[in-house]
Amino acid sequence: QVFLYKGELHIIPPEEPWQQGWHLSAPCPTVPQALALLSTRCEEFLAAEPIRAALHKRIQGYPEKIQASLHRARCFLPAGIAAVLRLRPSLVAAAVQAFYLRDPGDLGACRRPFKTFPAEQRVMALVTFTRCLYAQLVQQQFVPDRRSGYTLPAPSHPQYRAYDLGMKLAHGFEILCSKSSKVAPDAKRNVLSGPLWERFLRSLKEKDYFKGEMEGSAKYLELLHMAEDHFQQSVAVPESCDEVSPGDEILTLLQTTSIDVKEFEREAACLPAEDDDSWLDITPDALDQMLKEARNESLPSTDEEEQKYDLETVAESMKAFVSKVSSHEGAEMPW
């Protein structure tokens, strides 16, 4: 059990000594028992110095450092998305990932006029990303389908970046909503047409789940529907049933939130300046410095054999190996 106590890392080992007087059968204390141990004998469980030093190096400067990893950018996007992000700013992460990791099937929802976020009601808004999310979005080269309704101005347009980011975000949100159970009543049919379902059904038949009932009979169909429901709940969707999908959450927010386009337009007239994204450009000197720091962080090897490791020897050995005769019995090893 690992605890952060008074700013330091403590580890309570699952060994016997601490159990004296507790008469516990469990290998670890309960949380109240562990807290009692820490409050009275915390010095005994203090983690080793190298462990604490590594931890402090990772968290040094936080939480203040979090602000430095954020990036605020102007996006010309549908008013519905602006309203959703005002209530749940963290949904921008799911939208960026949906766009960044899209596949041809996902883009099916984007090859027609958008159902949830049409291009007609767009507003300028300031969106907060993490630097990673912003880089993923801005570096993607993507041309929207003409049928979607989204068009981009010329790259020389002063607001080109805002249009581009907004278009990509809109695609991410539309993909999320298209996967929602609220707008995809045929989701069950799609899941039950895959190879996983076929193997599951074959397994049920082999185990005589249908008890000899004729295929298509009332009893057979009843058992089949039970199997489908079980597959949907426990096999096809292993995630927690309590977890709401981002698409469902977005649609719920849209249904319960009033969207005032005029208000967004008034706010757009006095938006604060967006952040400078020059951090995206890394100079050769900065890259060398990063590599140098990474090398310094890696621990030097103490193994003498490892220190004598010679890449040229390895290369010669590899050449010798591939030049030897091989057959169905394997290759001759160049000892």
UniProtKB/TrEMBL annotation:
Pfam families: SGT1. One of its GO terms (cellular component) is nucleus. It comes from the Eukaryota. It comes from Prunella fulvescens. This is ECD protein. InterPro entries: Ecd (IPR010770).
